């Protein structure tokens, strides 16, 4: 295939230097669009045109304006930025290559709101492409975007017959972008969908043809509002939001298990109150519910909501429950797993072509997979192994750049095979 | 005065042998009525005629029939029993002695549903007047009834001018009889009310002229109803009543303190569930809320109720909250305390005439006190010290029979003084 | 085979009329021993000789004496009863039939401490073999014991070559008898073990050759001991056992889920306290922890124990945690499942020979299965379908007596096949 | 008396402009020392010389250095600052005026870590003496320090015979300075102690001669440390600090009430966790326990501590409980109240000389009061009414400057009277 290893590395490092969190991928989208225009695609949808109306986990206007300004200052094309105002980031690129099936490839592009290691042991620091924004590509989405562009270019130069759509999805980390991209209409004619993730504790050289076991998830932010009171003189005036929160937390973890499969709950971040001598007026729980199936997740979250409401009632508080993000469960389809495994087995640098893996976590690629599967198509979630020194989401996470080429090769080979064989 | 020490002891022992719990004082009321008829009173109201409609803590029909039958078997007068059908126990006796104020004396007559000690150290066991019913006079109401009759007889034979009403109140232990007796109409013309209690950790020879610090109280019985489920196979089918109860208990004790004074909460008896492998379908809390004032009690119980409701909501259960009994707070009036203290000080066997005491507990005599005070009258709650080997409500509680005469003398002396001086 | 349908029904009805709960199976064991002696076995171990030392869930002496006496009164052989004193119930019968493998069959014999329906719709009531003891065979162990005897007799009369051991296990319902029988030594030379259960929602005519998915379980009884106090006057003197219990219950249900598989928790029966106005001195939780593997169960129960201890510490109480019963998880072995499925498929009344089923509950047959498997042998847990009008453990549970013959036939056929083929 | 109203106002405004929180009163102490040197005192103890070793609520070194630097930049005398290094702020001034009793006056000098209103309605903003430090004198300690200096100057110029010690106490707001000042030795010969507070909802013109009802208090900061885990994949690896905190909060509020008097609890500020999908590793509770007596406070805090420990045990976490501040309860002595009331009654601007008030809150002046009372001396806590537009601790709190002169006059008059009459 035709994209050089050097170009992939160069592009990935450039993206790594400009990480942007969910719905703030202004510079990133603009940079991707530039590359797409350079490669030449048949159709290109940016921002508002790539997404349906219902986004989740969108930050406030000030926050978005700040990142938009930062993108501008970093040299992003103003015309492209204009198409993303209001945080409508992301893009869909379409390549038409004659008769054949419509194949989709989904890559996510957002970063995490955390600091990156400045340690000399950390390659991006040592080699000078460490984050310049305060955020960090600590989950490899810089590699994903690079692979997406690499595959597009490789397919352009190859023998694929059919239509290829590459989905550069925003806001995966808040489980907020998968839904609106799935409902954008661009998925409606996709017959085969490949989603891709690097790492996941698989080493460089291993490719996992079909990952399943995605837990459906709902993330929520609950705010309790009561009434303050002086803790010494007037405790009875207080309607205690921290007490309500504490009661809710206890009951969230005590939501019944489900006989049909695994469920998960977490009150991952909580807080409340202002001073030791004031009965707390406000408190919050930022948490999530998951399930092995979407039904189990729904059962679990329904009970979480009851726990939040019951606790508010007990302490005479109000509770506001905001859904921040959610994603269904999903499984990879055998027929498509076969194709990817075959493509992986023939690659000289692939030392292990694993058939199946389990995620045990959540991902909003499941929205896109489900959309395609519900319409009778096939989907698989492909893992491209990469040696990563630190764990996902940590300050020292990094990808082994050798895996970029493997990813591009295996995926474009699989896409050609799909065009040939319509599995 | 005219009632012999021996008669008082004999009568008290007879009553002690036939203890009957709340709303089951059939034999006791009948025996009191017999005495009243022997003494001769001007008016006599029994059962339904002595009480307003709203009783609390009434047992079910089977339970009442059983005790009615038992009373019949023990020789109670069938004609009197007939007037108490349905658990309308208790009586009001009126003595008219010419011009003068209307004075009330309230004594309670019910026993506790607990076994009495059979130990030889325990006087009723040794002397052969231990309970024959399974219940026990473990709070001295046998002495109260005896004192009530003794005072009536003493006043009959004495120089009192005015009207004396003696209230033989049922169901104090469930805080259920004070309310309906207070609303019966018989209190409406009472200008001075004396209530009496023996013991309370005051020794024989001490009389406390005015006890205050009654905590207002509400007793409740809450039943949670959920849905069972097999704990191994189908935990999600359960709507867990025990979990709801546990959450409620935690929050009942965590009801805010009140800046205006003391409050109390207790989940004194709880239970639920049927087997280790069944998600519990039912559970209950039998508890109470108290307050230094009626307002504090109301605040506290309102929050208890919210805790019960909130917990039910959390676990998708129903909760039914039944009010079993309640009583307001009360204080004794200085002017009447003076009268009783004077009467006590002149008695040869009174070694200590204490002015004021604090109960720190609850009593439904407060309903009667409040009724009189609200109409502009005066009330006091008098403590007649008695050496008691075991604590109140324990299996070895007993009264020192020397205190019976002291009680009769001091109270009838005080009543005569009221007739004389209209304090 | 040789046991008549009528005899099986007659025997089962006789056992159904005399249900005895765990460790109280005096009459039942004696009756089984009589049958064994009639059939003629080579070795017979009763009570103490059939069990290792460590029993769980043993009732107190009074309770056992009462049931022993009842068995005597119902005509059980006094000589046999003598061998069971102290609640050492159950038996192991050995049949030696020449060269060949040692095969075990495990049936359990105890009943449940619950009342049986007296409704005319309920066959045992209509046909006059309803329980005469107050307990009830509401889980079909009467059928199990009958099948155990039927198989023994059938094998005696058949072509089996090898050694057959039938384990009449006591105390399955409290998960208390499996452990001591597994450690009795009688399992040590068993190479193939069949365990059997009727019903489980499978209809008459269906046989499930291998049931798996047993959850490992630990049942516990925790007692909290604090200190009483008058709830009005001296709340600070109380060390509140009900509060501790409530805190423990909340945290038991909130024990973390496990990433390796399913776990379960239940506080199935709780209680505490004596009166609304006494701070509760005692409370209990009767509950259980389960896990898809023994390790998950251990993790879960360890956290349950911490919740009990932590709650006791918070409320300054003592907690005593007694393990009442426990069982490991287990799976059926493929090779043995094949044999049973083959035997089932050839039976004319078997309409469906299902290969695998999932229990989703717990069973202490797993102790015996594990013992055999750990020594290199094979085990399977066989389901014999039976139409049952009410669910297991309910008042209207009953077995379809047609399934008795199917059970005897399929199991004795499988045993002969094992003797022949040593799978 | 001799200090002009204008000087008092000028000094108070200067102090108001430089508010410094607990243990950071560098500029404030230096300014006070300058004034003391100007007035001329016989002995002067600053910082380390004015305090015993055990301080509570001391901030970390960086924080102190920052405020020290700020004080230096604002023109504080470097020689005086040197004596306060390490946050040893505050001072004791001694005036020897011949034969007579030793009288103490305690004023506190620290500010609150909160922003001050910039609204034009707010006098300090309108008149240009609003806070320049980010902190705020929102509880009138600027007035207290001013009154302390004013009294010293007035007594210098008056007829007092005896010794006067003025205690400029740091760190009252964190209940951290009263203890070390009480144990400094400077209190040991004080026979009469006056403490003073402005406002407390008493209007200008009212003086309260003796405030009591101080609740003893302990403030604590508890940190729970567990272990993180991925909430989806590895929930069992988590030892959940937020769950522990929530359990602790529920039980802190559920600490038993006390029969001997009021108690208070509050978990005023809590927090924990980092992300929705991580089992929280850390959490904290910043709270307090109070009691009407020191014994009740001790009982209550002991139970709070047990709740913290029990919750940590349940969730397999560690808990570290740091005592941040504490103060005993106290009452004002009648004899000294008389003296102050007399002094107040004769002042022309005092419209109401109230004898007694109740605080219903906590104050670490009680350490000094208790020290004097324990040695046989007398103490009273004097309220100087002042119209304050906003409540204490709010952004718009301010003192009516008319009350400064009233405070100086009444207190110096009372001190002279003590010298005269040795009450």
Please characterize this protein's 3D structure.
- In chain A, helix 2 packs parallel to helix 6 (141-157) and helix 8 (241-253) packs antiparallel against helix 9 (294-314).
- Chain A has two domains: 5-213 and 330-421, Aminopeptidase; 216-327, 2-Layer Sandwich (Alpha-Beta Plaits), CATH 3.30.70.360.
- The first copy, chain A, has 423 residues and is of the alpha/beta class.
- The model of chain A has no long low-confidence stretch (mean pLDDT 95).
- Chain A has helices at residues 5-17, 26-39, 61-73, 78-82, 123-126, 141-157, 178-182, 241-253, 294-314, 334-345, 365-374, 402-421; strands spanning 43-46, 91-97, 102-108, 162-169, 192-198, 206-212, 216-225, 229-230, 263-273, 278-279, 282-291, 318-327, 352-358, 378-384.
- Chain A has an eight-stranded mixed sheet, sandwiched between helices.
- Chains in contact: A-B, A-C, A-D, B-C, B-D, C-D.
- Chains B and D meet through helix 8 and strand 8 of B and helix 8 and strand 9 of D.
Sheet with the most strands, sense and barrel status of chain A: 8 strands, mixed
Cα radius of gyration of chain A in angstroms: 23 Å
Based on the structure given, which CATH architecture of the largest domain in chain A is correct? 3-Layer(aba) Sandwich
Order of neighbouring strands in the sheet with most strands of chain A: 1-2-4-3-5-14-6-13
What's the assembly state of these chains?
A: homotetramer
H/E series of chain A, N to C?
Answer: HHEHHEEHHEHEEEEHEEEHEHEHEH
CATH superfamily of the largest domain in chain A: Zn peptidases
CATH topology of the largest domain in chain A: Aminopeptidase
CATH first level of the largest domain in chain A: Alpha Beta
Task: Indicate the overall shape of chain A.
Answer: globular
Number of β-strand runs of chain A: 14
Termini Cα gap of chain A: 23 Å
Mean pLDDT of chain A: 95
Instruction: Classify the beta-strand content of chain A into a percent band.
Output: 15-25%
Low-confidence stretches of chain A: none
The total tally of domains of chain A equals: 2
Percent of residues in helices of chain A comes to: 25-40%
């Amino acid at each position: 295939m035709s994209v050089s290893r050097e170009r992939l590395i160069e592009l990935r490092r450039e993206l790594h230097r400009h990480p942007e969190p969910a719905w703030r991928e202004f510079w990133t989208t603009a940079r991707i669009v530039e590359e797409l225009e350079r490669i030449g695609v048949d159709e290109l949808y940016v921002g508002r045109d790539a997404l349906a109306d219902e986004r989740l986990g969108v930050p406030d206007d000030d926050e978005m304006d700040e990142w938009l300004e930062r993108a501008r200052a970093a040299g992003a094309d103003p015309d492209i930025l204009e198409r993303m105002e209001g945080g409508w980031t992301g893009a869909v690129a379409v390549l038409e290559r004659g008769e054949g099936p419509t194949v989709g490839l989904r890559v996510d592009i957002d970063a995490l709101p955390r600091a990156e290691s400045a340690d000399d042991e950390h390659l991006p620091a040592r080699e000078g492409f460490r984050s310049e924004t305060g955020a960090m590509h600590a989950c490899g989405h810089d590699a994903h975007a690079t692979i997406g562009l690499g595959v597009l270019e490789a397919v352009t130069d190859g023998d694929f017959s059919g239509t290829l759509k590459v989905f550069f999805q925003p806001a995966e980390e808040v489980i907020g972008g998968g839904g609106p991209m799935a409902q954008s209409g661009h998925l409606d004619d996709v017959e085969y969908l490949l989603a891709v993730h690097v790492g996941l504790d698989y080493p460089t050289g291993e490719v996992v043809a079909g990952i399943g076991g995605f837990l459906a998830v709902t993330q929520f932010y609950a705010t309790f509002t009561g009434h303050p009171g002086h803790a010494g003189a007037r405790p009875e005036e207080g309607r205690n939001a921290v007490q309500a929160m504490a009661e809710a937390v206890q009951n969230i973890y005590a939501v019944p298990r489900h006989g049909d499969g695994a469920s998960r709950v977490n009150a991952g971040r909580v807080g409340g109150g202002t001073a030791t001598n004031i009965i707390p007026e406000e408190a919050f729980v930022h948490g999530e519910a998951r399930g092995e199936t979407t039904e189990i997740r729904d059962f679990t979250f329904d009970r979480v909501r009851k726990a939040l409401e019951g606790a508010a009632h007990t302490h005479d508080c109000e509770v506001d429950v905001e859904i921040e993000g959610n994603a269904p469960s999903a499984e990879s389809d055998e027929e498509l797993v076969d194709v990817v495994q075959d493509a992986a087995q023939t690659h000289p640098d692939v030392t292990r072509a694993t058939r199946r893996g389990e995620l045990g976590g959540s991902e909003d690629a499941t929205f896109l997979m489900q959309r395609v599967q519900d319409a009778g198509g096939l989907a698989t979630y492909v893992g491209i192994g990469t040696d990563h020194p630190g764990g996902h989401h940590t300050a020292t996470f990094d990808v082994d750049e050798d895996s970029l080429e493997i990813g591009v090769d295996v995926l474009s080979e699989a896409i050609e095979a799909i065009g040939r064989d319509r599995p």
